[in-house]
Amino acid sequence: MTLFQFFLFPFIASALLFFSLHLKKRVLKAIAFLFSLVPLAVQVTSGTAFLGMEYDVPWLATLSIHFHLVVDNLSLVFLYIVNAIVPISILASQSQRIYRANFFYGFILLLQGLCLGFFTSRDLVCFTFFFEAMLLPLYFLINSWGGPERQKASFTFILYMIAGSVLMVAAVLSLYVSGNTFDIDTLATVAEKLPYAPLLCAIFLLAFLVKTPIFPFHAWLPDAYCQAPLSGTILLSAVLSKAGIYGILRVTYALYPTLMVQMGGLIFAFAVAGMLYGAFAAWGQTDFKKLIAYSSLSHVNFVLAGLFVFNPMAESGAILQAVNHSITITGLFLVAAWLEDRLDTTQFGRSYGLASYMPNLAWLSLFFVLSAVALPGLNNFVSEVMLLYGVFIENPYFAAILGTTVVLSILYMLRFMHQIYFETPSPFQANWQDITRKEKLIALPLVALIIWLGIYPGPLLHQIAPATRLETSK
Amino acid sequence: MTLTDILALSPLLILAACALVLLLVAAFWPEKQRLPTALMLTGLLASLYCACLGYVSTNPLLTPWLVFDSLNSYFAILFIAIGIATTLTSGPFFKRFEASQEEYYFFLLSALFGLLLISSANDFLTLFLGLETLSIALYVLCGYMKKWNLSSEAAFKYFLLGSISTAFLLFGIALVYGATGTTRFDLLSKITAQLAGQEKLLFLSGIAFVSFGLLFKAAIVPFHIWAPDVYAGAPNPVTAFMAVGTKAGAFAALIRLFLLTFKGVDPLWHQVIAFLVYPTLIFANFVAMRQVELRRFFAYSGISHAGFLLIPLAAGGHDAGPSMLFYLVVYTLATLGSFAILSFVDDTSEGVQLKDLKGLFHTSPMLASIFTLCLLTLGGIPPTIGFFAKFYLLKVAFSAGYYGLVIVGLLTTILSAFYYLRIAAVMFAEPSHVEKQVTRSIPASLSGVIAFSSLIILSFYPEPMLHLFTSIFK
Q1: Any CB–CB contact under 8 A between A140 and chain B?
Q2: B residues 389-428 lying closer than 8 A (beta carbon) to A
Q3: Nearest-by-CA chain A residue for B408
Q4: How far, in Å, CA of B82 to CA of B242, rounded?
Q5: N or C: which end of chain A has fewer CB within 10 A?
Q6: Does residue A473 register a pLDDT over 50?
């Protein structure tokens, strides 16, 4: 299988789904799930051969745009995230409640295809194209299948995104006019010497940081996360936020290494502000879905802070933390959605002590919560220690500030556990059933990944290490 | 006259003959319902075939008046395709409203004849003849539904304002003739470079008036006042024809005059055109956001697209032509696709209101999907080809150093994303209780499906078309 076929497969799958109007919802879900597993299967079975694959053809030769895809270590890590999370998000969807399910699954597969393109493309125009194209399936997922406030949430989401990245086209054109190519690797050698370099770097950073999102640009996040259907929430938090992080590593790190260091302090400050803001906002929530949304904001800003201290160890830690955040946040949103199904609300304080009625759900929630608060032996512990160690080398005080996030996350996460699952149990209600076997099976791969990355992160770090060295040596 | 001459003229001749035959049909077999449409389509297809053959005449009786080059063939094919799409879109209109088809098709063919004359003009007089044939036919078509109040008002407004603009155009032609002593384009292109002093002043004033006349047809702010009322009042298929036909006709004339004949006429002209882009883009996009009637909405969105098309005209350079042709194709396909879908739900003289589309996705998912793709293309949102169409225009502007135009163009796409997505969101919302009757029509569906599939194919592989357009301007 060439890289092009690998890239094309989800598009064909989504086109097939779009046109299968008359299949049963369960069948559609099964088909979509199998289709979405194919890229992961290809990635796993082709092993080392997958790394370094390349596909380069002129796409719009008149505009000197190349369709240039390369899989390097950095791409590989993010491709694993996409290909592992998308099948889980499909499995997690509640197919019986979804009308026109073929479009729903079609959009998810379309998103997967666009992500594969985004995380591998090396032509700046293709990169921009996929970066913006990814918004559209997510917009439709929120807008058509989301909660009661979905129209407003999806509009805020897409307008923020477009406004953030619209000037990127101008930046790309400016690079082309002065550098005479759209190739990222070629531009990397000259970009800093071209005119308007600081401005262009700022434009790129803005686009990526709005998507991640960093602190002052996060206004779209709580609504979008809470109004989206479960699959959409998972994709937003686990995949889309990583697109911003990947963009920073792929484009701004490569094109503007020295400028980034100059701007780093400012962005580090925003990231720290976002981290604390997210943590305190999560602490103040009375709605557990919002709490998880804000905790995601806090954690993503923690990753960004790690990226902007420019220490190789912190950078490896940040990339690993990005992977871990995807896994953990998926688990958290899953248990939150299952809890919402049973309680019919996302508010705290209506019912207590659910652990006695739904022990399995309680243990599963606790497991994901412990992963989020970086319990030693679970995935986040490794990456947070690496990240903090890297920051400590550069500046011990910064490490101390960043360290507070660990304490804060324990505070708000355990408050959530305490209020819902423990305390004196409320009287039993009929729909308080424990999680089914199907739900356990959906959670199983996440649990396995969390334990594996917590105990033996070696193989993944092995992939990340060359990616960081490559990016920082430039 | 040799056979080649006749073949070279045949697209025009066939249209004229077909128009006359239709009038005879109206007199002799008025009761045959399907005959006019069949005749019309046969004539158009024959004309399209002849236009594709692309015969070139060198007859000295023809060449002073008409030019036979690849640009002309391109426009002839585009115009006839517009004619075919309009004919197909008229299907549901005649199903719903009581009106005679033969005269309608006669005027449509006359308008097409005018368009073809415009694109093949090699003399100001032929150009004027073409513009007048187009306009007079359109004045009648606008008021074709005699009993609709809005229609009569629209036709009268269009007629009055159109005549004024024609007067300006004629005055401009007279001034150019006064300065140079000729109205032939091939001679003018040689003479204008040598003009100096008073003659140059006279010539430039003439050019200014000619531009005014043409920009009026293209509906550029501040010459756009007629467009919203006329679009809203005219019958649906006529609005479709005006939205793409008149616009393409005006730009055909502008390309012929200012990219080929008066190449680099005067830097001042380019500055004025660049200056017009700002109000056009800003005004049209802001006003379009508030429209709830779709024909009026398409008037404003059309004005904003005309603003985009002005950008390469202002910038000039060897890529300006191809980028405009490409944008015109994409705009035409997407607009015709949209109007094909609108014709399904258009059942009053008041036009289609935004709320009529509510829940269209639930009742007819395929119609809604086609419409959505067309809207996204118009909005230039990736992964549709609209993104690259805009990208190409902006690249031309950036290469010529018109940074302001690029920035305004990009920022206004935020607004356009808002209003195009708003329509899509309405279609995806829950259906209202009052079911809107959808007129099923095979011809209109055909038109929609052709637009849809061409847009999809173009999105994946636009290179052959781009290559063709570049070769036209070599």
Answers
A1: yes
A2: 391-392, 394-395, 398-399, 403, 406-407, 410-411, 413-414, 417-418, 421-422, 424-425, 428
A3: A167
A4: 10
A5: C
A6: no
Region B389-413: mean pLDDT is 93
Asked if B362 has any chain A CB less than 8 Å from its own CB, the reply is: yes
**Number of structural domains chain A divides into:** 1
Distance between terminal CA atoms of chain B? 30
Query: What is the percent of chain A where pLDDT is above 90?
Result: 50
Phi-psi region of B380 (alpha: psi -120 to 50; beta: other; left: phi over 0): left
Domain coverage including residue A427? 257-474
Cβ–Cβ gap A100/B362 under 8 Å: yes
C-alpha B445/C-alpha B451 separation (Å) is 10
Chain A residues in contact with B413 by the CB 8 A cut-off are: 162, 166
pLDDT band at A357 (very low <50, low <70, confident <90, very high): confident
Q: What are phi and psi of A397, to 5 degrees?
A: -65, -40
| Segment B106-133 mean pLDDT | 94
**Which chain B residue's Cα is nearest to A58?**
B463
The reply to whether A160 falls in a domain is no
Residue B142 in tokens? 């606008």
Contact A159 B470 (CB under 8 A): no
What pLDDT is attached to residue B433? 67
pLDDT tens string B295-312 = 999 999 999 999 999 999
Residues of B in contact with A60 (CB under 8 A): 388, 462-463, 466
3-state secondary structure of A72: coil
| Residue A68 located in a structural domain | no
Q: Which of A153-162, A291-300, A427-436, B61-70 has the lowest mean pLDDT?
A: A427-436
- Report whether A401 contacts A302 (CB < 8 A): no
Q: Could you tell me if residue A202 is inside a domain? A: no
Cβ neighbours, 10 Å, residue A184: 21
The answer to whether residues A453 and A326 touch, using CB atoms and an 8 Å cutoff, is no
Averaged confidence pLDDT in chain A: 89
CA–CA distance, A268 with A266 (Å, rounded to integer): 5
Q: How far is CA A147 from CA A154, A222, A229, A230, A387, in A?
A: 10, 13, 7, 10, 36
Domain assignment of residue A365, yes or no: yes
The answer to whether B451 and B333 have CB atoms below 8 angstroms apart is yes
Q: CB distance from A130 to chain B under 8 Å?
A: yes
* pLDDT at res. B163: 93
Residue A474 has pLDDT above 60, yes or no: no
> What pLDDT, in 10s, does the model give residues B197-231?
888 899 999 999 999 999 999 999 889 989 999 99
From the CA of A323, how many Å to the nearest CA of chain B? Answer: 27
How would residue B251 be classed by pLDDT, with cut points 50, 70 and 90? very high
Six-digit token string for B354 = 């935004």
Residue B95 pLDDT: 83
ipTM beyond cut 0.85 = yes
Residue closest to A29 by CA, chosen among A120, A98, A73, A90: A90
SS3 letters across A233-262:
HHHHHHHHHHHHHHHHHHHHHHHCHHHHHH
Q: Is A177 on the interface with B (CB under 8 A)?
A: yes
pLDDT tens digits, one per residue of A18-28: 888 788 888 99
User: pLDDT at position A347, please?
Assistant: 85
Rounded Cα distance between B353 and B294, Å, is 6
Q: Which segments of B97-218 does DSSP mark as H helices, in order?
A: 101-120, 124-142, 149-180, 185-191, 197-218
pLDDT of A469 reads: 55
Tell me whether residues B428 and A140 touch, CB distance under 8 A: yes
